[in-house]
Structures are given as C-alpha cells and as structure tokens.
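Sharing a chain and its predicted structure for anyone who wants a worked example. Both blocks are below, sequence first, tokens second.
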Amino acid sequence: MSQPTQITVIRDGLFTSRRLTADINDTVTTAQRLVKEHFGRRPLTAVEVVVTSPKKIPGLAAAAQGAAAGIPENVYAEKRLSFTAKPDDLYSLTVVAPKNTIRVLINAKRLRRRPREIGATLVWAFVEVDQLCRKGSLERRIALTRHEMGTHVLPKGKARSLYRIEAEMEDEAAKVTGQIVGKVIRQNRQAEAAAAREEAGTASTAQNAAA
C-alpha cells in the first residue's frame, strides 16, 4: 500500500500573508487528493509548497532546479529560467528540487487578491507534480535547466522538442484542472440541490402534520 505524499507548506518572506499561507495549508491535501483520484495514482515524491512573492520566484526557481541539475551555485545564482520571465503573471510554478523533491512556488501577491482561486491553483500545481513524477520528466526538466543556464547547451532541434513537451504539459494541466474543478462544482451543486429538496420535504411533512 502506497504511503501519502509528504507535503510541507512554507511561508517565505516577511510580508507574505500568514492568512493566505494558512488557507493554502488547509486546502493543499484536498487538492492533492482530487488529483490523485483523477489519475488513479499518488506520487511518492515529497512536495514543498512555498508561499512567496513574485519578486522572489525567479531566484527560488533557479536555485531549486539549478541545484537539482548539479549546476554550481555561482552559476545558477546569476541565471533565470525562461518560465519565470513574467513572475507577476504566475499563480504558481512547479519545479524540481534537490533530494528527489518537487517544489511548488505560490505567488502570494496574486492569490491574495483572488482568494477563490486558491483551490484551482493548488489543483493545477498537483497536476504538474504528477507530470514531473512521470518517467523521463525529471531528466527532460534537468536537461532544459542545464541548457538555459549554459552548462550543457542542446542542439536546436532537441531544445525545440523539449520546449514543445513542456508546452503540451501546460496544456494538459489546464485541461485536467478544468475537469477536476468542474466536477467539484457539479458535485457541490448536486449536494446543495439534494439538501434543498430534503429541507422542502421536511417542511411539507411538518405542514401536513400541523393540518
């Protein structure tokens, strides 16, 4: 029997919302469960959820993937990865990290303004966790990291192929997140409708008894 994935929620930055971090901590296991139920599997890799500012996301992503790729610190400390080019636009970013860990970087600034999107953001993140646990994904991500940091530059055709796979993974994450969130919404509506019918039936029974 597989053991649950270890999840750690970390608040990074003095001005990062404590309340948002608490809300994420309360929601993260549900998001993980929904993704597990969708794919029928649960990755065994430990997951660190880091709630931080968009300003810090590029450096944290470069440090995590640079270290995982075995790149010297003096190199990755000066580099930024292409998918962090517009950190303010990100809700979250899922990256590989050392010691067989996956790190989810949460844009606290964006989610603080859109609290209703916490659940969907975490579902998306755990879809990406699932993707990075699939066969060959870690190797592709490390190859791209080394390519972008200049320690192992890939032939153009190979680089294009890896970027295409990354784009396909993003499309899949969007599609699956929509499916999971849509299912939860439908289930909630059905539960609300059932509760309303039960309440109406109880009221009708009480009226008949009174008559």
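Comments welcome. Residues 65 and 158 are 19 Å apart (CA to CA).
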